[in-house]
Amino acid sequence: MKVQSAEQMLELIEFGTLNTQSAIENGITNISGNTFSNCSSLTGSAPINGIAQSTINEINGMTTEYTTNGMRALSYRGVENPWGNIWNFIGDVLISGNGNTEGGIPYICKNFNYSGNITSDYESIGFCIPGEHDWISAMGYGNEDYDWVFMPAEVSNANSAIPVGDCIWAAPNLNAINAVLSGGYWNSGLEAGSFYYSCDREITHSSRNFGARLIFIPQKNSIYETNLSAWNRKFGG
Question: How many folded domains does the chain comprise?
Answer without folding.
Answer: 1
